[in-house]
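Fold these two proteins, one after the other.
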Amino acid sequence: MSAVTTQQQDWHLRELKRSLRNVNLRKQMAALALIAPLAIFIFLVFVMPVASMISRSIQSPEVVDALPDTTAALRNWDRKSAVPDDAFRGLMLDIERNGGNNSSGTAAGRLNGQKAGFRSLFYKTSSALPFGDDDSALPAHEVRQKLIEIDRRWEDPGYWQAIAKDSSRYTSQYLLATMDYRRNSVGDIVPVDPGASAYREVFKRTFVISGLVTLAALLLGYPLAYWISSLPAGKANLLMILVLLPFWTSILVRISAWIVILQGSGLVNKALLSLDLISSPLTLLFNRTGVLISMTHILLPFMILPLYSVMKSVPASYTKAAISLGSHPFGAFWKVYFPQTLPGVGAGGLLVFITALGYYITPALLGGAGDQMVSYYIAYFTNVALNWGMACALGAVLLLVTLILFGVYRKIVGNELKVG
């Protein structure tokens, strides 16, 4: 009887465990069903575009697609010895096969950026082909001579080295260019010429402007958030509505307003002139000053909101207790209150800095030629130069820097929480 009872208990226990697993499984499936639309949305509008951008920054298929035989013949060429005859033969076959279609024009434009005169050479050769009814039967050395007769530039190894540099569908030249490096004619990584160095300075300028805007937003936003957090709930809510009010206005409208305010006959210069603080109008537009003022105004709410949320959670009794124990009010603020608001400072600073890194409209409208940030060049390569590889490389580097900054912030915050 005891054995039967034990078996029944084991059976009931197994059934109970099975029922619990089924219940947990149903709950997990229900949770997954709830978050599935959001996960799909994030994957489609964020993960896929970012992955596409990163992959496009290392792709260079234009020349390989237009000149498959030529690039295949040059793939194992050391770029120092004589150009192999098979490359000449492959070039003839590729040009005849393309017949001057769009892929040929794209490849010619791409190669022209590496070797000046390639576009005219390509089209001149294309117009002179075919040599005969059955060019495929011509020996490679004869094709070499015929191409050189069309244009002596085919004797220059530089043109073939340009093709050889793009003999793969994947390239590092875009990412190297963002750091002002390039591959020379034999494939070694070298710095670009001093006069052609640009992007390193652009990234430095972007970080400097973003850092100054973050600092200005912190200096203006911290006392304002502290004041709002000390007010009664009704007044604090009203002031927070005023802080959020710029979000309801278009950025273009706000920038246009700053153009009116900062121009030579604007409100700022008129006020300073009327107070005899200046003798002539200040130049506040189309320079770094106008960019910093406008970006600080636009991004200030992003600093105030995290600060306010943290400050509201800090009990005022802590500071009062420190003062009652003999501490100076400023000492109590600096040693007791301020350290507790550092998470808000970090979150607001990170939010403002990362947002400022990608700004485009404000520097484009209020800044000069020396105030344009990385986003300006991304837009230029996307819309004007149609060099999407370079645009994606700049975007990928900017994304990498943002992720590094976020990782450093998380590391610092994590260490502070462990110490606390």
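Now the second one:
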Amino acid sequence: MTTTDIHRAIEATWRAESARLIAALARMVRDVGLAEELAQDALVAALERWPEAGMPDNPAAWLMATAKRRAIDRLRRSKLQWRKHAEIARELEAQQAMAPGFEEALDDDIGDDLLRLVFTACHPVLPREGRVAMALRMLCGLSTDEIARAFLVPEPTMAQRIVRAKRTLSEKQVPFEVPRGDDRLERLASVLEVIYLVFNEGYAATAGEDWLRPALCEEALRLGRTLATLMPREPEVHGLLALMELQASRAAARVGKDGEPVLLLDQDRTQWDQALIRQGLASLERAEALGGREGSHALQAAIAACHARAARADDTDWPRIVALYDALVRVLPSPVVALNRAVAVSMAAGAEAGLAAVDAIAGERALRDYHLLPSVRGELLRRLERFDEARAEFERAAGMTRNVRERELLLARARECA
């Protein structure tokens, strides 16, 4: 393998394994910030070592073993000499001396560790922005810049949020756990938000060369199902699960033969996963039966259900979707929800009405750097045969996105307008 190939393999391994690595280390050292540092140290070691020595047979195990050795060294050097650190160091040394198979046994519990990581990151000592940003950094492997763009804030602002969040968790000695009772309920809304953001990053990647990151969607679905088992009477848990299942059912149709994105109205609906659709509809029924019909995730799932029930794009009940968005705007007011509602309005009442709804929110500060705003405007202007304006909007959107596949799609739309 060339050095370039090895670097690509390291990047792929890191994207696939970093969340599990950080979660396992956090359970060992009881400090999320320190766990991330140790995982990063192992990544740097791989970048230094693997190009010369070659790829190990089990890259994930190599990263874990290296990070654990770094943890032991770090704790030994600690000037604080806390009793907790001494105990953890002895525990890690004992684990290192155990018979082969320890890593496999550890992996059996990784799923719980990931859920613990989400709940820890969503501790109420952190502000909402810090919780979500740190979780996306650790669970999705997103850079600070990518998270900043996703939240439509400057990169230095997001970097400060992440640093403050890690420092607060360490200073407050927040336990690495899935809490019980009222503590669990207190964190639930943030946990659901984080899980859905992880799913969304898999469903439409913020950056990179791939439109989808299926492993993240699968991880989010697994976390959602685990949470539904832990909290079976919470309607929004089932609402979120329904939303993810219904959206995941379209995955095979969302990418063309060359990896290009295929938008919803252009998808071959025979490729939609009917088993996942049935699961999603059942989860939505459960959420509504528990009194969660007006929950934000249940409303979004109901919108996805309208698409899932339509055998053809022309069969979609767009007036129903607009009504659901009207309800969603009331419980989850945001410019992004309003933009999605405008798209639904354009399908129910025509492109002119949709464009008027878009222009009514175009001045929102949060949408200033949001590439989907000019993308939606471009599509509506194209439908109105205002091709020069549409081309300019598509080109502006292409310049704002960080995803290679999405940029190619937007530039192709611009060329069609020419």
